[in-house]
Amino acid sequence: MAIHENLLGGPPPTHLPDDPEPRELLAAGTAPAEVAAKYPASSLVWAQLADDAFAEGRSIDSYAFARTGYHRGLDALRRSGWRGQGPIPFEHEPNRGFLRALHALARAAAAIGEQEEYERCTQFLRDSSPTAADTLS
User: Fold this and answer.
1) What's the pTM value of the predicted model, to 2 decimals?
2) What does the alpha-carbon distance between residue 127 and residue 69 come to, in Å, rounded to a whole number?
């Protein structure tokens, strides 16, 4: 038996490749909009913009930023072999940008009254990573 074989028969976990530059720039205090302009494919940057907008009461902006991060993350997941289901572990730091964007999308959807999208995104987050759902909620 191979090490890390999925004994439940489901798809293996997806681990996005590391992209440390946006994370390092944000940690150094670079404005998220500046980082997004330099790294527009980074879900992490869009998730940060969504979080900042939501904290400022700008739910529509938060929704738009989160949706961008979500779609950028879906693109990255597909490039990494994800086929629409299976674990996306929060414990793998490069996955956190996508998972944060997904959480931010659910939160913003609830704030603007998009109940179906809120429920879909909340379930998707829980199915992808129970740890992320518990940590981010």
Assistant:
1) 0.92
2) 18
